[in-house]
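User: Predict structure, ligand oxa(dethia)-CoA.
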Amino acid sequence: MKRTVIKGVGRYIPERLVTNEDLTKYMDTSDEWIQQRTGIKQRYWVPEEGNVGASDLGLIASKIALDRAGWVPEDIDMIIFATLSPDIFFPGSGCLLQYKLGLKSTPALDIRQQCTGFFYGLATADAYIKSGMANRILFVGAEVHSTGLDISTRGRDVAVIFGDGAGAICLEGVETDKNEGILSSALHASGKYADKLCLELPASRLNPRIKPEWLVDDCRHFPSMDGQAIFKQALVKLPQVAKETLDKAGLEIGDIDLVIPHQANLRINQAFQRTMNLPDEKIFNNIQKFGNTTAASIPVALDEAIEKNIVNVNNCTILFIGLGAGLTWAGMVYRFLN
Ligand code: UT7
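Assistant: Predicted complex:
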């Protein structure tokens, strides 16, 4: 039976460290508020002068993942690039990355699934691999949030949360009798809540798509979020989707070695931990260091957990869960087995 397995993982976090204290220079906030409400202590942003896009961060993460997989770029049958902060409006960052990897005609698919980009991306890769349409897929989740945040008191509820970064995963189809690789996935969306977390401008539904006064007076080019509404949805939907994903894999929570949740808010993940009755060593969080890196958050966390030997790549069953803009929410069970 064909299974989709991970052959290599890589991450890249830009070097500009921004502590909570640093943010107090720009807005009325405090280290205490940010840590209490989100768990975040710091995040990393791309250089202030700009000229670094999601594909640039993705390129470095990809090279690491390719190296670990023992692949060269020409081995890739397809690129799937997840980001809500593409380098430019179009074409997608996947095309830009493809060129930067020195590839000539490898297909590149961008997906716009925000915090669940990892799930939609890997489920798509799994379907392509199992159908025989591709066998080696490079998935990249990368975000440059910092250039698009309202770093003033007006935008503080959103601005303090987000960090920049990229994660990359090399996925391959293998014929095996073992119950390994992607065991199950569950994807959901509810566009009813689209306005609860969104970035409106530039908008094709408006003509013109952008007007100077909308930038100055209304700031509609910055993300806006009803944090409490998203928070409440997460508390309900994450345990639900965890159960659905486990059921699909024929597993129970006790069969899981580690939960790697999307890193949106430490309190959300702690609430999930309580609901599922998980001991501390069975859930991995790194939002404290990196903030919320959206599509990059899970691949970055997976890479760090492997590096720290928290994930044993010879035998480890992981439950991934996430929820974010869309609204989208999802789960995936993956088993490393050697
Ligand atoms: O990955 C994307 C998905 N997104 C999420 O999962 C986000 C989920 N939601 C959250 O993480 C939380 O709702 C936030 C961290 C965004 C906000 O935390 P909260 O506990 O829901 O705070 P709040 O929005 O209810 O605001 C409480 C107070 C308000 O002041 P008043 O009205 O009580 O006077 C805010 O103006 O905190 C104020 N506030 C801040 N104060 C200091 C909001 N942001 C800040 C800030 N620093 N950065």
